[in-house]
Amino acid sequence: TSVDSVPLKGDFAVKTAPIVQKNTSKTLAELADSWEHDFTFAPIRESQVSRAMTRRYFQDLDTYAESDIVIVGAGSCGLSTAYMLGKARPDLKIAIIEASVSPGGGAWLGGQLFSAMVMRKPADAFLADLGIPYDDEGDFVVVKHAALFTSTLLSKVLQFPNIKLFNATAVEDLITRPMPNGSVRIAGVVTNWTLVSMHHDDQSCMDPNTINAPIVISTTGHDGPFGAFCVKRLVSMQQIQKLGGMRGLDMNRAEDAIVKRTREVVPGLIVGGMELSEVDGANRMGPTFGAMALSGVKAAEEALRVFDE
Ligand code: AHZ
């Protein structure tokens, strides 16, 4: 018998007894009078905090293990896609997998280290739908801070009850099913904690998790440490021959091309945003974000076509 076990036995009953929560909610005005007098936080036991988080997370893992749509990457395109899907179909289960701790990808600044975000028309329609204010400069509009765009979009996406963001989680592989013609259809994703994904070379036995879904939408950005993940995997599994490779910067050509080419690249896998530039050899656009928003709108439409069929 360990030294701890004796007191623990009696204690255990007390610790597991349900803690009755008193409704201690106050208005901020009532709080203002209390700082010097009776101010105190409502009581809590440490285990309640752990359980409040882990119970929900594991419930979400269970719920979203079978999803309707998985979005890979929560940058400007992935979040725009999620917003459109969440609005259109509250009945679908949508999981977003984001490798970084912080969702938003490259859309926290407008480009370089500057704050303002430029969107060419007609992408102002997306801002209007979100209720984000902007300066109208004729052919383009300017949001005063890219973070205003990203935080507004993110807050709306996170409020949809049928969307779950799993951040700090990387897509490590794709689930496939054979097709009669010898190719494959994408049928979900293989995931792992990003910190685990980063340590496969020096730790063993860190097998991944999975999410089954009939539609995966990949918006992992152009090639980089994490970018273009799904399309690079399509090449290594011989589902597309090679990548076109993102071309140099040409704002006019790039934005039109990304929106027009947003599509199901192989059965079950829709690609949007800058990941597409790697598939098709499209130009980059630099710091203009209209194509990311409208590629997201189009990716959502492509996905919904499958469910509406
Ligand atoms: O962390 C990545 C980022 O948040 C995430 N991601 C990448 N690989 C992943 C993986 N699993 C999970 N294997 C992954 N998440 O995907 C997100 C991509 O966001 P982004 O902002 O890089 O891409 P985007 O296509 O939404 O927006 C591109 C914005 C650009 S790049 C550009 C240029 O270079 O010219 N111009 C614009 C407007």
Q: What this model shows, in words?
A:
It contains eleven helices and 14 strands. It is an alpha/beta fold. Strands 6-2-1-10-13-12 form a six-stranded mixed sheet, with helices on both faces. A three-stranded antiparallel sheet has the order 3-5-4. The radius of gyration is 23 Å and the shape is globular. The relative contact order is 0.15. The model is unreliable at 1-6 (pLDDT under 50). The site of ligand AHZ has 30 residues, from helix 4, strand 2 and strand 7. Substrate binds at residues 77, 98-99, 106, 171, 207, 222, 274, 284-286. Keywords: Cytoplasm, Iron, Kinase, Metal-binding, NAD, Nucleus, Thiamine biosynthesis, Transferase.
Give Rg in angstroms: 23 Å
Q: State which percent range the strand residues make up.
A: 15-25%
Assembly state (oligomeric): single chain
Q: Order of strands across the biggest sheet?
A: 6-2-1-10-13-12
What ranges have pLDDT less than 50 throughout 5 or more consecutive residues? 1-6
User: What is the rounded distance between the termini?
Assistant: 64 Å
Number of strands: 14
What percentage of residues falls in helices of 4 or more residues? 25-40%
Order of helices and strands: HHHEHEEHEEHEEEHEEHEHEEHEH
Bound molecules: ligand AHZ
The average pLDDT is 92
Give the structural class: alpha/beta
| Main beta sheet strand tally, sense and closure | 6 strands, mixed
Put simply, the count of helices is: 11
Enzyme class: transferase
Pfam family, one: Thi4
Keywords: Cytoplasm, Iron, Kinase, Metal-binding, NAD, Nucleus, Thiamine biosynthesis, Transferase
Subcellular location: Cytoplasm; Nucleus
